[in-house]
Each structure stands twice: as structure tokens, then as C-alpha cells.
Amino acid sequence: MILLLVKHKTEEWLSVCLNKSKMNIKKWFRPFETVNSNQRLLIAGIWVFIIVGFWIVSSLGTKHMFPTPSQVWEGFLSLYNEGLVVHIVSSLALCLQAAGLSIIVSLILVYISPLPALKPVAYALSRIRYLPLTGITFYLAILVSNARTMQIGVLFIFMSLYFITSLLSVLKDIPAEEIDHARSLKCSRWEVLWEVVIKGRLDYALEVLRQNLAIIWMMLVTVESILVAAGGLGVLIKNSDKFMNHGRIVALQLVILLVGLSLDWLLNVGRKTIFRYSKF
Q: How distant, in Å, are the alpha carbons of 69, 73, 80, 279 from that of 57?
């Protein structure tokens, strides 16, 4: 009875959306066209249906590309019983420690970059982002004896390099009119730095953090393999890959994606809540 009711309501909702969108489907294929909320929901539903359908079709047969949904669900249940929540907390703790250090150091380096004597430091660090991970971990292993500190160090270095690069772009894009306006108000050079660059771009700094946090989250699988005893999502996915358990691997990938999207959503909502004047 419940299934029939859900089916009826779903069909009713789809018919309403299709009736409202029947004359405007051509808009979906025009650049910069505006669509209403029902149409956006319908488009999203169509894409979800296509992706789920492709997944189901790709999991059929003896030789298939993806594990079946039932195998993924079984993998998720086994991971949960093995302490998935504890591993998520461990990964989040590692991510937040590295992000906190990166924010502090990167903001200081970028905010002092308007000083001619210190400007080359920030620009030189932004160029180092092309260095490979292997070379940096080699020298960190010499300098650091603690594996957990090494994990934090690798994530901190990589996020800082990209964070500095993005913040320098924000600094470069500040309109000259804002600086001239501050000077016309008899602000000193240090006051201009504080009012225009630091206070006036805090919302941009939070947005840059949101965008670059994905770098740390993406690298967890690689970095957490340095210290298996500390646990984490990276350790789980590495062990699952070792035993070729594809259901667990896809389940972990979905968990990593959902946690990352949740962090992204929280930072975006936090920015809009704290900085109500923000226009992006």
C-alpha cells in the first residue's frame, strides 16, 4: 500500500513537472537561459536516473565494470560494523589539523606580500606547487620522526601552496578604486592593508578555503597510508583494494564523496551566514 502511494505521488509530481516544462524544454539547451525550481529539480532527477541506470546496466553480466548496488550496500554494512565512524573522525581530525595550520601560515604570508621586501616569498612558494609529492615526503621523513606529524606536514605543505596561489589572485583582483578610496579617507598604508586587504576580503579567504579544502580531502587516501595504525578512510580503501573487494571500495568512495560535499556545504553556508554582504 505504501509503495503504491509513493509510486502514485511520484507519477503525479512528474506529470505536474512535465506539464509545466512541456513548452519550455527548448530552454534547457539554450546558453544562459533561466529555469524555475521545478525544472531544475526535474533536470537533476533525470541526471540521477541516467547515472543510476548506467550503474545498474554496467553491473550486469559475469564481467561487469562496477559492483552491484547490493554488493555496495553489503560493503557499507561491513565497513560500519568495523568502525567506519571512528575512521571518518580520524580522517576529519587529520584534515582539520592540516587545514588550520595552512590557513594561519598562508594568510600571514599573503597579507605581508604587499611589502616589497617580502613579496618574493609568497610568489616563490606559489610556484613550488609543481613539485611532486615523492620529493617532499623524502625530505619530511628526514626532518620528522613521527608518522602522524609527517601526515599533517604533507597535507599542510600541499594545501598551503595552492591556498597561497589562490589568495594572491584575490589580492591581485582588488580594484584600485578601493585602495584610492581608503587613501582619500586619510588612511595610512597599514590601515589600507587592514581595511581593504584583510577585513575587506575575509569572505574571499573563506571561499578560497572551501575550494582548496578539496585538495586535502582528495589526498587522504595517499597520505593516510603513511601511518596505517592511525586508521582513517585512506587505510580502509587501501585494505579493500588489497583484497579486491570492489563493493567496499565503491562504498568508501561514496562515503568520502558525501563527507567532502558536507564539508563544502558547511563552509559555504558559514560564509553566507557570517558575511551577509557577500555577493558570490
A: 11, 17, 27, 43
Between CA 248 and CA 77 the distance in angstroms is 9
Q: pTM higher than 0.85, yes or no?
A: no
Question: What cell does 264 get?
Answer: 563544502
CA proximity to 165, closest of 202, 203, 211, 134: 211
| The dihedral sign for the CA sequence 206, 113, 177, 195 | positive
Going by C-beta distance under 8 Å and a sequence separation of 6 or more, which residues neighbour residue 56? 68, 69
* Residues 6+ away with beta carbon under 8 Å from 194: none
The angle formed by the CA atoms of residues 165, 116 and 180, to the nearest 5 degrees, is 85
- Over residues 46-102, the pLDDT tens digits come to 899 998 888 888 877 777 778 888 888 888 888 888 888 888 888 898 888 999 999
Name the residue among 243, 216, 215 with its Cα closest to residue 232. 216
Q: Where are the alpha helices (H) located in 22-68, listed in sequence order?
A: 37-58
Domain range list for the chain = 105-273
Q: How far apart are the first and last CA of the chain?
A: 46
Q: Which long-range contacts (CB under 8 A, 24 or more apart) does 271-275 make?
A: 271/203, 271/206, 271/207, 271/210, 274/203, 274/206, 275/202, 275/203, 275/206
Q: Which amino acid is at 187?
A: C
Residues 6+ apart with CB under 8 A from 33: 27
The CATH class that applies to domain 105-273 reads mainly alpha
* Angstrom distance (rounded) from CA 170 to CA 277: 17
Cβ–Cβ < 8 Å for 278, 203: yes
